[in-house]
Amino acid sequence: MTLSPRRPRLRRPAPLIGSLALATGVGLAVAPARAATPTADTPTAAAATIVVAKDGSGTYTTVQAAVDAVPANNPSAVTISIKPGTYRETVKIPANKPHIRLVGTTSSKNDVTIVYNNASGTPKPGGGTYGTSGSATVAVEADDFQARNLQFVNDFNEGNTSITDKQAVALRTAGDRIVLDNIGALGDQDTLLLDSASKDKAGRVYVNNAWIQGNVDFVFGRASAVINKSAIRLVKRYDGSSGGYVAAPSTAAGKKGFLFMNSNITGDVSSRSFYLGRPWHAGGDASLDPQAIVRNTDLSAAIKTTPWTDMSGFSWKDDRFAEYKNTGAGSGAASTDRPQLTDAQAADYEIADWLGGWQPSS
Q: What is the pLDDT of residue 47?
């Protein structure tokens, strides 16, 4: 994926909805994650809540220190409660630390910011570069992760001419059963990487009431993800020009890709300058079957009248891209360039269908 540079503007999102249960209609259970039965090989669970505060009033002053304090294979939920502030650090939650919740202590996603500025081409201290996935400000490789009431930011300056590979991820998830509620994900290219541990593994993600900002392929990956009741914000490039792509799914064949619903897509960009998406056949893998569905969403005039396009020699028409009952100046009637689901088809494109029997809990 190529990009033209731009520094993200950290815009303040307007509140959308506050309740995860009200947002879904999939019968959310309000219950903690189910704990495994401890064995001789299972460490004692960490404290149920760990407090992070920049001013020293918590247990730790960095988010990563709190994550490090959670024992491997922790059997039950641990909430890392983060007090307001800007935390300039990278955070990694490894695969052997499930059930972690990152939660800001206020109801505003703007009050807690985790931010860093690595890009794909940023040199690593030990040699080489980070690569796209390694550029993430926050990387979540564990299952049953939740984040609420905070924002993830990558503020890499795309005007930096010394770095050519400028993809810069704010949040990467690679686990299964991920909940992102009332969060922000801000960047330019490749802002939000929703992935899975491997092509054959599930990577179910539920995103609700989010503010997601970028310009090139800024929601991408192979996860089966629902993006519900969210604000998708298009931003210009570093040089003031408009143009880009919202989604770049790399869905495996037989799996579900990205389902955008009940949201709005807009931004201070030129009319008819953005595509809704394009198929990312990662590594040139022709066996992939990328999927993106945009339904019941308000589209501004920034969206092109032909909203899907090809990528790296792969035609979007050979993959799975469609709309259903979108509104706004950027919406349009069904055509060969603008597939629309029928009512009967749309009945199988609901949240419960996408999450495959998993009901997100709060």
A: 74
**How confident is the model over 22-31, as pLDDT tens digits?**
333 333 433 3
Mean pLDDT for all residues in the chain: 90
Task: Out of 188, 190, 195, 319, pick the active-site residue.
Answer: 190
Catalytic residue among 144, 155, 181, 217: 217
302-339, pLDDT tens digit by residue? 999 999 999 999 999 999 999 999 999 999 999 999 99
Q: Are 150 and 102 in contact (CB under 8 A)?
A: yes
pTM of the model: 0.89
Tell me, yes or no, if 190 is annotated catalytic: yes
pLDDT at position 20 over 60: no
What lies within 8 Å, CB to CB, of 126 at 6+ separation is none
Is residue 201's pLDDT more than 80? yes
Of residues 6 and 332, the one with the higher pLDDT is: 332
Give pLDDT, residue 239. 87
Secondary structure of the chain as H, E, C letters: CCCCCCCCCCCCCCCCCCCHHHHHCCCCCCCCCCCCCCCCCCCCCCCCEEEECCCCCCCECCHHHHHHHCCCCCCCCEEEEECCEEEECCEEECCCCCCEEEEECCCCCCCEEEEECCCCCCECCCCCECHHHHCCCEEECCCCCEEEEEEEEECCCCCCCCCCCCCCCCEEECCCCEEEEEEEEECCECCEEECCCCCCCCCEEEEECCEEEECEEEEEECCEEEEECCEEEECCCCCCCCCEEEEEECCCCCCCCEEEECCEEECCCCCCCEEEECCCCHHHCCCCCCEEEEECCEECCCECCCCECCECCECHHHCEEEEECCECCCCCCCECCECECCHHHHCCCCHHHHHCCCCCCC
